[in-house]
Design a protein that fits this description.
98% helix; 0% strand; rod-shaped; mainly alpha
């Protein structure tokens, strides 16, 4: 009976050892699976962040380009406005001087005519 008990104890010990071995293998496999899943999630996360940053960078570049174009159009419009204003002012100034000169010439001519008439009479 001692041998039978010893054999029974040995078999129980082997089953226990096998159960522990399978348990560790399962934990190891699940750990490996979890690690692979975490690696995939991290890759997906960083890919998503990278895509998000790329999209924002592209949008910022486009916005900057639009602002540059609008600034150029604004500058051109400002230059055109200044040129038109200066032209209008120059016309105004010229008209102010041309009226009195014309009036002065007309007055001088009229005065000369009057003087001639007076001298004739």
């Amino acid at each position: 009976m001692d041998e039978q008990k010893q054999q029974s104890i040995n078999e129980a010990a082997e089953r226990f050892a096998e159960a522990v071995k399978e348990s560790y293998q399962t934990v190891s496999e699940r750990g490996k699976s979890a690690q692979e899943l975490n690696a995939a999630l991290a890759q997906q996360f960083f890919s998503s962040v990278n895509e998000h940053l790329r999209t924002h960078a592209e949008a910022n570049r486009e916005t900057t380009q639009e602002l540059v174009e609008k600034q150029q159009r604004q500058q051109e419009a400002g230059q055109e406005l200044v040129q038109e204003s200066v032209g209008a002012y120059m016309e105004f100034v010229n008209s102010m001087f041309s009226v009195p000169q014309g009036a002065a010439q007309a007055g001088a001519e009229e005065g000369a005519k009057q003087t001639k008439k007076e001298n004739k009479t």
